[in-house]
Amino acid sequence: MRTVVLGIGNTLLSDEGAGVHAINYLQQHHANLPETDYIDGGTLSFTLAGLIEEAQNLIVIDATQLHAPAGTVRTFVGSEMDQFLSHNRKSSVHEVSLMDLLSIAALSEHLPARRALIGIQPRTIDWGDVPCADVQAAIPTACARVVALIEAWQQ
What we know:
With 155 residues, the protein is an alpha/beta fold. It has helices spanning 18-29, 49-54, 79-87, 98-107, 133-153; strands spanning 3-8, 36-42, 57-63, 73-77, 114-120. The chain has a five-stranded mixed β-sheet. Strand 1, helix 1 and strand 2 (36-42) form a beta-alpha-beta unit.
C-alpha cells in the first residue's frame, strides 16, 4: 500500500515553506518507512497530478491558515480534508491549488481513498529561508502525525 507524503510550500517565504521543511525532516528521521515516498512538491504544479492519482495513500503537509497561534498543527483526514480545502481556498504563491490537483484525480476516478492534510499555522510569510521558531518547533509534531497515519493505514 504505497503512501505519498507531499510537502508543499515556498522555502523562500519563511513559514510558507513548512511543508517542504517537514519533508526534509522526514527524510532525515524516518527514511526507512516501507512503501513511502517523500516528495518536495514545492509550489505545486500540474505535473503532480499523476503522482497523486497513482498513490493509494496521500498525506499533504502545508502551511495552512487555521486561525490559531503560530505553530498549531491540525490534521484533516478524508472528507474532512476535502471540506477544509473547499471552504478555505487561500490566495497562494502556488501555480495551482491542492484542491485543483485533487479535483483532477477525482474526475479521473483516481482520488486516493486514504488522504490527509496536515496543516501548520504560519506566523510570517515574508522573505526568509527558515521558518519562525514556532513553526520550526511544530515540524516534529506534524511529522509524528504523518508517521502515525502511515502506520495505521499500512495495518
